[in-house]
Design a protein that fits this description.
- The structure is a single chain.
- The chain is an alpha/beta fold.
- It folds into two domains: 4-15 and 24-339, Alkaline Phosphatase, subunit A (3-Layer(aba) Sandwich), CATH 3.40.720.10; 351-457, no CATH class.
- The chain has 14 helices and 19 strands.
- The chain has helices spanning 4-15, 52-59, 74-83, 87-90, 108-114, 130-133, 159-173, 220-246, 279-282, 309-316, 318-321, 368-371, 421-437, 449-457, and strands spanning 27-33, 62-68, 97-98, 118-122, 141-143, 148-150, 153-156, 180-186, 253-259, 264-265, 271-272, 283-284, 286-289, 298-305, 351-355, 380-385, 388-393, 398-403, 444-445.
- The strands form five sheets. Strands 1, 2, 4, 5, 8, 9, 12, 13 and 14 form a nine-stranded mixed β-sheet that branches. Strands 15-16-17-18 form a four-stranded antiparallel β-sheet, covered by helices on one side.
- Strand 6 (148-150) and strand 7 form a beta hairpin.
- Helix 2 (52-59) packs across helix 8 and helix 7 runs parallel beside helix 8.
Length: 467
């Protein structure tokens, strides 16, 4: 088997040297907000004002009303954004695992480096640390000073820690005669939610309060704290975008904001995100602002995926600058660029998601197949086509079928039995789809004992860590 380094060289050779650009490609400000569900943002119809700065960003760009993640864990979701591939294709199905040696797909920051970008990453939580992801090799700066104490281990930091560092890097890098790719990751909405009194969401938007419709199991104190974390993060998102504008870079910078996944706050008696695929977890916010190429205030109702991020950004930047530029073509996602301005529309599509069972503890790499739960098939797999939503839990032989038009909070599923025709039809189709996409073995385990404890504190590891 060819080594990863050789495969990367071969893949980059396919790209070829950047051709003579017709104009300097624009910068990219890539903002990811951890654990941010779409339906708790004001511009997505929430009854409280939680996101005035994100709403403003949406008013200046395109808001994707129905954007979906492909998986419900932080690192695998980001790998999918950066490769336009499902976790079963790039191989990083769990936090703490990088794509395996020899993974053949290129990463967005890797491609941008080839076209002369200065890349800076500013991450806020342990699952995205360079040791666990190996993403730092595609960035000139990979800032991960996780100085906030999170339970027993320093494993995260607040928005007020990361945003100023990112703004300083952007200001310094903007002075250079080359474009930049700034990835800024905020972690604050992740549990446990800290209630931020100065950011309590109390102002109403005029929309209906639908909290009670989500079930009696919703934890209202957690909702209050979660909303305050969103409003706090939104404050720093505003400062970050304002810095772009103050530097005179508004017209020369693609700003994209999205979440890695959402969160269940007690709905259906579930707290968290990593093991479920309900709408509260897979339906995420996504916004793109780029004056001149993206219409201000446009709303795309069609369903889009995080897999669409990489091809869209390459079209808005490298290909917009030089239409002859050679960029990767092996991407599952589609470019949305042509539907972001004028009368062009983005076509609706089916969206899919997978959730893999969590690891119990970390053993040496050679022992992986003996201690990991079977990763050859997801714990859960889902799809949405129009208002038809299906979630399958294979091990338990449970199939949930929802009509989201009549049941938007997924409270009344049809649940055909294994012997039923509907069960066989749906599960056969899901099995066929997954097997057609399953290419990579489990990713490379890069966790130490301390890493395991950090991930356990984030709720990603079940059963505890051995010493």
């Amino acid at each position: 088997m060819l080594s990863r380094s050789i495969l990367s060289v071969l893949a980059l050779t396919v790209l070829g040297a950047p051709s003579q650009a017709q104009e300097e490609p624009p910068n990219i400000l890539f903002i990811t907000v951890d654990t941010l569900r779409a339906d708790h943002l004001s511009s997505w119809g929430y009854h409280l004002e939680t996101s005035p700065n994100m709403d403003k960003l949406a008013s200046e760009g395109v808001r994707f009303a129905n954007a979906y993640t492909v998986t419900s864990r932080t690192a695998p979701s980001h790998f999918s954004m950066f490769t336009s591939r499902y976790p079963q294709e790039h191989g990083a199905k769990l936090n703490g695992f990088a794509p395996p040696e020899g993974m053949k797909y290129l990463y967005l920051p890797q491609v941008l480096q080839k076209f002369g970008y200065s890349n800076g990453a500013f991450v806020s939580a342990w699952p995205l640390s360079k040791k666990l992801t190996k993403l730092d090799r595609f960035f000139d700066v990979y800032d991960q000073d996780l100085g906030r104490s999170y339970q027993t281990i320093n494993s995260m930091r607040w928005a007020e820690d990361v945003a100023p560092r990112a703004m300083n890097w952007i200001e310094q890098t903007a002075k250079k005669d080359k474009p930049f790719f700034a990835w800024v990751h905020f972690f604050d909405p992740h549990s446990p939610y800290d209630f931020r009194e100065d950011f309590e969401a109390t102002k109403t938007t005029g929309e209906k309060d639908r909290t009670a419709e989500k079930g009696q199991s919703v934890v209202l104190d957690d909702v209050k704290a979660y909303n305050s974390e969103i409003l706090y993060t939104d404050h720093w998102v505003g400062k970050l975008v304002d810095k772009i504008d103050e530097l005179g870079l508004k017209d020369d910078t693609v700003v994209i904001l999205l979440a890695d996944h959402g969160e269940s706050i007690g709905e259906k008696e579930y707290q968290g995100h990593s093991r479920r695929l309900w709408e509260s977890i897979v339906h995420i916010p996504m916004i793109i602002r780029f004056p001149g190429a993206v219409d201000a205030g446009k709303v795309v109702e069609a369903k889009v995926s995080t897999l669409d991020v990489m091809p869209t950004l390459l079209d808005l930047t490298v290909k917009r600058s030089d239409p002859t530029a050679k960029v990767p073509s092996e991407m599952v996602g589609r470019s949305l660029a042509s539907g972001l301005s004028g009368k062009n529309e983005v076509a609706d599509r089916q969206v899919r998601a997978v959730a893999f069972a969590g690891q119990k503890w970390v053993m040496p790499k050679w022992f992986s197949k003996l201690w990991l739960r079977d990763l050859d098939f997801p714990l859960r797999v889902s799809y949405r086509n129009g208002d038809h939503k299906v979630v399958w839990t294979p091990e338990e032989e449970i199939l949930e079928i929802y009509d989201l038009a009549a049941d938007p909070f997924e409270m009344k599923p049809q649940m055909p039995k294994e012997r039923d025709r509907a069960y066989k039809q749906e599960t056969d189709a899901l099995t066929k789809w997954f097997k057609s996409t399953h290419q990579a073995e489990g990713g490379e385990n890069l966790m130490s004992g301390d890493d395991c404890k950090a991930l356990e504190s984030l709720g990603y590891i079940q059963g505890g860590c051995s010493d």
